[in-house]
Amino acid sequence: MPELPEVETVTRSIAPLVGRHIVSAEFRATRVLRGGDPDRMAARIQGLRIAGVKRYGKFILMSLDGGGGPGYLVIHLGMTGRLLLGGPTGKHTHAILTLDRGVLLYDDSRQFGCLEFHEEFPQRVAKLGPEPLEVRFEDFAAALKRHKTRIKALLLNQTFLRGLGNIYADETLFRAGIHPLAMASRLRGERPRRLFDAIGAVLTEAIAAGGSSISDYVDAEGRKGFFQLSHRVYQRTGEPCLTCRTPIRRLLVAQRSSHFCPKCQKR
DNA sequence: ATCGGTACCTGCACGC
DNA sequence: TGCGTGCAGGTACCGA
Predict the structure, then answer these.
(1) Same domain (yes/no): A13, A57
(2) Number of domains in chain A
(3) Direct distance between the N- and C-terminal alpha carbons of chain A, in angstroms, rounded to an integer
(4) Nearest alpha carbon to residue A83 among A65, A118, A58
(5) Could you tell me the residue range of the domain that residue A194 belongs to?
(6) Taking a C-beta distance cutoff of 8 angstroms, is the pair A183, A151 a contact?
(7) What is the Cα–Cα distance from A105 to A262, expressed in whole angstroms?
(8) Do A184 and A86 belong together in one domain?
(9) A255 nearest nt, CA–C1'
(10) What pLDDT band is residue A183 in, cutting at 50, 70 and 90?
């Protein structure tokens, strides 16, 4: 579900929680806590104030202050994680934050996401690459040259850029006219620029559309995104290319499905 | 030091 | 109806 545009949409939908206090918290002992102790986490954040909510790539950082000292609640939605403002709890609800006004739930059926509390700014977030919508073209182009790997695999690498995932990597490569198997370090001429511009355009449009609701993605208010209606290659295997009518193909790159037009996208 | 393959979970669509 | 298979927006970790 969640790549940069979806995580951005969720982050915006919980932004109104800034200023609220955590009256109580309940965490369930699941894989999502990554070994953290649920009761200790709950006790540690109880009474704290939500000072800010910010996205870093696909991570959401909720900064907390007051009580036992400031810290960060780090949230990653994995593949199926959802943050929800209220609503019923279910068998995949892993956390319940009761606020002085409202409730915030974390739900995640596949448990690939995580919830962690850190006293300091977390290393796993600090080591991410730059934001795709903030990086300068010169730095982007220089980084491309340093990586001897397939461009599709590189776009998925969060230390190269933070926030792109399988949908937006495929959509970006289509718009740039670059084959997913092209070697990153060998992109020449106008191609790095076209890729850079495609990343900016795709992410900006997707955020404006509230992200892509492929199966059941919704923001914290339960609203669906509609960028899936604008996908040109992702999960369109066999359907005609919207530019040249050639059937879209699918292949595996770095063990991930990659959808592309064999005519419009060159290696 | 980098890179690709595998593992981790649950649910769903599909063919038999 | 039920079962097996393959697939799904994610990252961490391993060995080469």
Answers:
(1) yes
(2) 2
(3) 28
(4) A58
(5) 137-260
(6) yes
(7) 43
(8) no
(9) B5
(10) very high
User: Do A227 and A251 lie in a common domain?
Assistant: yes
pTM reported for the whole predicted model: 0.97
Distance, CA of A154 to C1' of C16, in Å: 20
* Environment class of A136 (CB within 10 Å of its CB; exposed 0-12, middle 13-18, buried 19+): exposed
Which protein residue has its CA closest to C1' of C9? A1
pLDDT beyond 80 at A1: no
Give DSSP secondary structure letters for chain A.
Answer: --SHHHHHHHHHHHGGGTT-BEEEEEE--SGGGTT--HHHHHHHHTT-EEEEEEEETTEEEEEEESTT--EEEEEE-TTTEEEEES----TTEEEEEEESS-EEEEEESS--SEEEEESS--HHHHTS---TTTS-HHHHHHHHHH--SBHHHHHH-TTTSSS--HHHHHHHHHHHTB-TTSBGGG--TTHHHHHHHHHHHHHHHHHHTT---SSS---TTSPPP-GGGG-SSTT-TTSBPTTT-PBPEEEEETTEEEEE-TTT-B-
Residue A265 inside a domain? The answer is no
CATH of the domain at A100: 3.20.190.10
Q: Residue A149 domain-assigned?
A: yes
A112 and A192 assigned to the same domain: no
- The answer to whether strand B lies under 7 Å from the CB of residue A109 is yes
In a domain, A244, yes or no: yes
Give the per-residue pLDDT at A87: 87
Residue A133 has pLDDT above 80, yes or no: yes
- Distance, CA of A183 to C1' of B3, in Å: 13
